Amino acid sequence: GYSANGIAPNKVQFGSESIDAQLNTHHYISAGAKFPLGQNLYLKPSVLTRAVNGAPISYDLNLLADYKDIFWLGATYRNKDAVIFMGGITFNRHYLLAYSFDLTLSELKNYNSGTHEIILGIHL
């Protein structure tokens, strides 16, 4: 997949002050697959690449194990930044409850001890 934000020209405004500035377009490219490992058990590798002019390309390498599209566990490596551990459960095929923990590997680790995230979702 591909997506981008900041494609259209825009004006940056701080209070009543306007600045003629062009925000850089952010580009995202993603790919993934679903491989059966056994009855109702799947391995889902994926990658997300982010690029913006003036910054190094960044990417996430993801690996999820999924059971019956109900329970899943996984991990992500974000280059030069973090390792992420996650898990979740889907209820009634429409509701999601998940948790992730980001363990910082970059120099920011001197200023934080990781990030916890709780996700509540609805599949439409």
How is the secondary structure organized here?
Layout lengths: L1 E4 L6 E3 L2 E3 L6 E7 L2 E4 L2 E12 L5 E10 L3 E8 L3 E10 L3 E10 L10 E8 L2
Antiparallel strand pairs: 1-4, 2-3, 4-6, 5-6, 6-7, 7-8, 8-9, 9-10, 10-11
Tell me briefly what this model is.
This protein is mainly β.
Can you give keywords for this protein?
124 residues, mainly beta, 64% strand
What does this structure look like?
Helices cover about 0% and strands about 65% of the residues. The protein is mainly beta and about 120 residues long. The strands form two sheets. Strands 1, 4, 5, 6, 7, 8, 9, 10 and 11 form a nine-stranded antiparallel sheet that branches. Strands 2-3 form a two-stranded antiparallel sheet.
Low-pLDDT stretches are none
Distance between the termini: 20 Å
Please count the helical segments. Answer: 0
How many extended strands?
11
Considering DSSP H and I runs of 4 or more, what fraction of the residues is helical?
A: under 10%
Order of helices and strands: EEEEEEEEEEE
Strand content: over 45%
Mean pLDDT: 90
Give the overall silhouette: globular
